[in-house]
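FW: tagging you since you asked about this chain on Friday. Here's the raw sequence from the shared folder, copied in full. Didn't touch anything.
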Amino acid sequence: MFNKIGATLQWLPHYYARELRRTIQGERVPPKHVYFCICDHFEPYWNGADKTTARKRIQRWLDEYPKIADKYRDSDGNRLKYSFFYPEEEYQVDDLNALAELCHAGYGEVEIHLHHDNDTSENLRRTLIDFKHRLHEKHGLLSIDKKTGEIVYGFIHGNWSLCNSRRDGRWCGVNDELKILQETGCYADFTLPSAPSDTQTRKVNSIYYAVDKPDLPKSHDWGVDAEVGKSREGLLMVQGPLALNFSNRKNGIFPRIENSGLFSSSPPTFDRVKLWIDTGVCVKGAPEHVFVKLYTHGTQENIMKMLFDDGGMKLFFEGIEHYKNDDNMSVHFLSAKGLVDKVESILSASKGKV
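HL: got it, structure written out here
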């Protein structure tokens, strides 16, 4: 029991050390730019759903999301491009055609999600290469790297088990997964945070590079921060905010974990928006640029009810509107690819001139 508790709270030392460093080194500065991105584990066949149920779930997004997105714009006048991370194992041509139509209309982008278990490196490589070609060639999805001409993609691992990171070894099986992701065109991983799961890394609230350690699981448990003006090796890891929420306590005593997830039990309230921003996920050397990467499982009925029927998406956008009225801050809506493009532009800038 104590080992399990330790595994779920192993991120706390870095969390507190980071908070202390931000205070001592003067990194706790008011942000000038805040970038919001929602990365959805978009699983229409969740819970063993049949084809009819899956299509109803997709249709709900086709019908509801544009009506909400059109009402709200960021400081640049852009709507939020929603990031649909679609599971390879749930691929159906007509389903992706429908979702692609929404994306081509400017409402979102599709990236790669994958659930696998007891896999091999060879099969994983084939799976990722095949899926990215299907998405691009059949549906006009994913991006092309301007330098290499290669199809590239963002990635979220199913069950949080990136690089075989579960303690019991389930839901992956591949220790060299980071290397394979890089070699097959993954431009960044968006799996984290995963707390309270034991797959959560020790390193938190960071945009960093993780280098694959051959034959060892959880190579991304630690890494080197993305830093202005410095080049790094490894897979870019984009983490969402992970914090202790002292304004939301269990039994009125213990602070709850804020893991940037949008669920029926935790809608995007104004207090949460503030905490996400205050967490200050950024590129090292540019703390005035804050990235808020959120996640959800948007095809589950209770979550769709929260987002659409109960006004969760409206609540999210209205919470951000407050910050748009701040003359000292600009709010930006980004897709997963847009977020990484912004990170890379900050990294290549001269320090102090971002």
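FW: Residues 51-69 form the longest helix (19 residues).
HL: agreed, and The two ends are 47 Å apart (CA to CA).
FW: great, closing this out.
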